[in-house]
Specification:
Length: 479
């Protein structure tokens, strides 16, 4: 049996994983706020916890793992977007505009994450479907003295929970000094955070004992995880940016509402995808979306490969070089395994070395190294790669379409011959090597890329391949 070890943020140690109930291993991961397309950083937790989910399903059995990832579909950013649309003259109700925005964003999210080969969680609860449970939990916290109502707001009384700050290893006073805590007249203490806030007519709201209003963000996850996984469960995941305050607040709420239970036993946090040393985020504006990359012709599995190339606990950058390497490896694997039939996941045993690497605090980098080493055993390569979400049916379908269209080998689609252009580029390069003037090479290369052709220049020659964005009409001028 494969042993799984995970770095638990709560103890700051790598610990052996023992589920509460091996018949039902339970994992909750904080999902996206659905007001806009997911950026590449948002894909990182999806892929990290997808690997963990696959490993847990292998070790405990497919039907013995419950993975829940929520959609935050009540949020001020969603409201702002709906109000903006209303301001532009849309005559529909605010509720209708909000529902349209969240539904559309959820369908994009599904399409984008499916393209990365991420399995869908077992449950994807929407916050708006659990408002009743949130109201009940808030009422319970008030009754137990951990929360109070003031001016239509309900606040969590942070000083009433002794262990506040344990997850992030800070004292309340340090946190007050370091965090941008909002001082408000309705707060007993600046650290207290909102469980419920009033909504005026222009905002979505639900009736509650404290008037019409809407929940704070943190209570969502406490209420949904309790409903779907119980008061104690195994793993709670999310990005490290959520550790404080979001996860600290989740713990405070859940531990105070259910003092007899332990809430989550293992806290697993992924580090950030960065751009030039800064977290990729919407608010900094330094982001691009998963869809941007897919639309540029970067296959979803290439994105997956790049992400899994770095341990989840380390910050990482997306670079052009990593993309190219991932692309070359996956292309090589696809060619090696193209003629083979994949073995059913149920009837093959992944390589123990691969499982051990994943069990060792999800060492995906090492797992990819082991996959690479299987190149002389293509059937094993295919089956093990598929276990990790590569060379999937979806990718093989895309490859089939591609071959039918461009290689003329299978179907009757048009075939393109790029060899003359490859030769031309190679010749220009040879001339440039003499003259030390590469401008003609660069010009042809960028025109090819612009036409949706992937250009690979190696020591031995030039290889050109059409990508899904290939536009043959743009090549006419180049011949
Ligand atoms: P949000 O919609 O911003 O709450 O983020 C959804 C998920 O993406 C959370 O688990 C975040 O921790 C994670 N996340 C956001 N930005 C990044 C990033 N730059 N790198 C890795 N994970 C991120
Ligand atoms: Zn959460």
């Amino acid at each position: 049996m494969t042993t799984i070890r995970l770095r638990n943020s709560k103890s700051r140690k790598v610990e052996e994983f023992h589920p509460i109930d091996p018949e039902n291993v339970r994992m909750y991961v904080c999902g996206p706020t659905v007001y806009d397309r997911a950026h590449l950083g948002n894909a990182r937790p999806v892929l990290v916890f997808d690997v963990l989910y696959r490993l847990l399903r292998h070790v405990y059995g497919e039907g013995h793992v419950t993975y829940v990832r929520n959609f935050t579909d009540v949020d001020d950013k969603i409201n702002a977007e709906a109000q903006r649309r209303k301001g532009l003259g849309d005559s529909r109700s605010l509720e209708a505009l909000i529902a349209e925005r969240t539904e559309e964003t959820i369908s994009w999210y599904h399409a984008d994450m499916d393209a990365l080969g991420a399995l869908r969680p077992d449950q994807e609860p929407r916050a708006t479907a659990f408002i009743g449970q949130m109201i009940a939990m808030i009422g319970d916290l008030i009754a137990k003295g951990h929360a109070y109502e003031k001016e239509g707001h309900v606040l969590f009384r942070v000083r009433s929970y002794q262990n506040y700050g344990v997850l992030s290893g800070r004292s309340v006073d340090d946190m007050i000094a370091g965090a941008r805590v909002e001082v408000a007249p309705f707060k007993e203490d600046p650290m207290d955070f909102v469980l419920w806030k009033p909504s005026d007519e222009d905002l979505p709201g639900w009736d509650s004992p404290w008037g019409r209003g809407r929940p704070g963000w943190h209570i969502e996850c406490s209420a949904m995880s309790y409903e779907l996984l119980g008061a104690s469960f195994d793993i709670h995941g999310g990005g490290i940016d959520l550790q404080f305050p979001h996860h600290e607040n989740e713990i405070a709420q859940s531990a105070c509402a259910h003092p007899e239970a332990g809430f989550a036993n293992y806290w697993v946090h992924n580090e950030m995808l960065q751009v030039e040393g800064k977290k990729m985020s919407k608010s900094l504006g330094n982001f691009f979306t998963v869809r941007d990359l897919l639309d540029q012709g970067v296959p979803g599995e290439v994105i997956r490969f790049v992400m899994l190339g770095t341990h989840y606990g380390k910050p990482m950058d997306w670079t052009e070089r990593k993309r190219e390497e991932a692309n070359n490896t996956l292309r090589y694997w696809m060619d090696l395994t193209w003629e083979l039939e994949p073995t059913n996941l149920g009837s093959f045993q992944p390589e123990q070395k691969l499982l051990d690497a994943l069990g060792d605090d999800m060492n995906t980098h090492l797992a990819l190294t082991y996959l690479r080493a299987l190149h002389h055993q293509p059937q094993k390569l295919l089956d093990n790669a598929r276990f990790l979400g590569f060379l999937s049916d979806r990718a093989r379908e895309a490859e089939r379409d591609f071959r039918n269209t461009f290689r003329g080998g299978f179907g009757s689609g048009p075939s393109v011959d790029l060899s003359a252009l490859a030769l031309k580029l190679d010749e220009l390069r040879n001339v440039a090597k003499e003259s030390k003037n590469f401008s003609a090479v660069d010009a042809l290369k960028s025109s090819l890329i612009d036409a949706g052709v992937e250009v690979q220049m190696t020591k031995t020659g030039v290889e050109l391949r059409p990508t899904p964005n290939f536009d043959p009409s743009k090549l006419e001028a180049l011949k």
